[in-house]
Amino acid sequence: MEQPLMSVILAAGEGRRMHSSLPKALIPLCGLTLLDWALLALKQAGSDMPALAVVGHGQAQLKAHYGESLKFCEQTVLGTGGALLASLSLLNETGRIFVLASDMPLIKPSTLLALAKPDCDAAFAVTSLLPGDNRSRVVKNEEGALTALADADTVFVSYSPKEVKAAAYCFYAPVLMDALKELSARPGLSELSMSALMNFLLSSGAKLKTVAVEPDEALDVNDRAELAKAGALLRARINTKHMLNGVTLLDPMAAYIDETVKLGRDCTIYPGVVLEGNTVVGEGTTLYPGCRLVNSNIGKFCKAQAVVALDAVVGDNVTLGPFVNLRPGTRIKDFCKVGNYIEVKNSVVGEGSKLPHLSYIGDGDVGKRVNIGCGSVFVNYDGYKKHRTTIGDDVFIGCNSSLVAPVSVGSRSYTAAGSVITEDVPEDTLAIARAKQVNKVGYVAKLRSKRSGDKA
């Protein structure tokens, strides 16, 4: 195959049926934007040069999102063929050029490779004609050779089209350049469809071929219903890839895993798990129902149930949950236990430490083998600024202790249950910071007697 030198992505559509403040090309789907899916397919097909995006509506947002990773040009002539006219001065004059719509996230690299074979001047994908499809009809003669592309509302008398054109193309660059130059010279040209461009190439004697794909692969996303359909199909692909690489998904239809997620072998994913962004899950880890991990790294041989983690890092052999919230900046080291109803924020928890239940660890540095008793709180905010709490190794924090930052507890020290620690605790020290208990014998009996008299 002659190596394609360039890729053009048609990304000027407004996507009105999406009813979004984003241009359609930036709509998210399974961890990528719609435009990202086109770029991924092109890269996997061997087109590694920076793509050229033809933009219109929302171009400022697109340029801000992609920066210098893409080249941009603005569409001035209406129609998909008009988008190519806008790129005329930026196209390479040799090799082959992919042209791909930004709203076809299911197109496969293998299809692009088939389009790029050097046995024709231009090629495009076609798929079966289904009821309600308004894409251009593919017209062929009795021998099955392509003769024309017709609008969806064309009335055929003795011919019944069976295929429609999909928005994936590959052109031999000199042929495309010559056609675009001749068409652009036509006076008063205000709109050019891709079908009109193809028909012009046919009439000029160019050799065109079609590559058949399944309807699902040719799905173009125009509204939220089609977005959901595309998402389901992409999730099936993503989940199948992980299962073939040694991951167990107990119910693949109920696991929501972004394209960008990495899973180690022998992971087990239960139903109701959501893995987003650049999340990495290590070998042998089990994620039970209710886990949502976003841009987080979970180590090997962990067990997590009903855990929400955002920008968090968890070591190996850690037990999490149920009902744990790991906020940004959290670092949980190896062999820790983080039990039920625990929130950790911007804190480091040392190896082998335990946070069994009902605690808030905010802006803290916790040493090794520490036990944080039930109901303990790192009081990190004074109403103006956040402050840090530092806990040494082998510390025991008694139940319902409040550590008022900035404060430190030295290694091997204890805090008594119910203490409010406002001063640093030295090493090997028991800190007691609570009022002395007073027992008033007989008080309750007197209180009952008084209340009985009041009722009488």
Which regions are unreliable across 5 or more consecutive residues at pLDDT < 50?
Answer: none
Question: What count of helical segments does DSSP give?
Answer: 8
The average pLDDT is 92
Class from secondary-structure proportions? alpha/beta
From the spread of the alpha carbons, the general shape counts as: elongated
Q: In the residues, how many domains can be counted?
A: 2
Strand content: 25-35%
3D architecture notes:
With 456 residues, the protein is α/β, with parallel strands linked by helices. The chain has two domains: 4-212, Spore Coat Polysaccharide Biosynthesis Protein SpsA, Chain A, CATH 3.90.550; 224-431, UDP N-Acetylglucosamine Acyltransferase, domain 1, CATH 2.160.10. 20% of the residues lie in helices and 30% in strands. The protein contains eight helices and 39 strands. Strands 12, 13, 15, 16, 18, 19, 21, 22, 24, 25, 27 and 29 form a twelve-stranded parallel beta sheet that branches. The chain has a nine-stranded parallel beta sheet with strand order 14-17-20-23-26-28-30-33-36, with no helix packed on it. Strands 5-4-1-6-10-7-11 form a seven-stranded mixed beta sheet, with helices on both faces. A hairpin with a 2-residue loop joins strand 2 and strand 3 (32-33). It is elongated. The mean pLDDT is 92.
Quick structural overview:
The protein is of the alpha/beta class and 456 residues long.
Layout of secondary structure:
Elements: E1 4-11, E2 28-29, E3 32-33, H1 34-44, E4 52-55, H2 59-66, E5 71-74, H3 80-86, E6 96-101, H4 109-115, E7 122-128, E8 137-140, E9 146-150, E10 163-172, H5 173-184, H6 194-203, E11 208-212, H7 224-244, E12 248-249, E13 255-257, E14 262-263, E15 268-269, E16 273-276, E17 280-281, E18 286-287, E19 292-294, E20 297-298, E21 303-304, E22 307-310, E23 313-314, E24 319-320, E25 324-326, E26 331-332, E27 337-345, E28 348-349, E29 354-362, E30 364-366, E31 371-372, E32 377-379, E33 389-391, E34 396-397, E35 402-404, E36 407-409, E37 414-415, E38 420-421, E39 430-431, H8 443-455
Parallel strand pairs: 1-4, 1-6, 4-5, 7-11, 12-15, 13-16, 14-17, 15-18, 16-19, 17-20, 18-21, 19-22, 20-23, 21-24, 22-25, 23-26, 24-27, 25-27, 26-28, 27-29, 28-30, 30-33, 31-34, 32-35, 33-36, 34-37, 35-38, 37-39
Antiparallel strand pairs: 2-3, 6-10, 7-10, 8-9
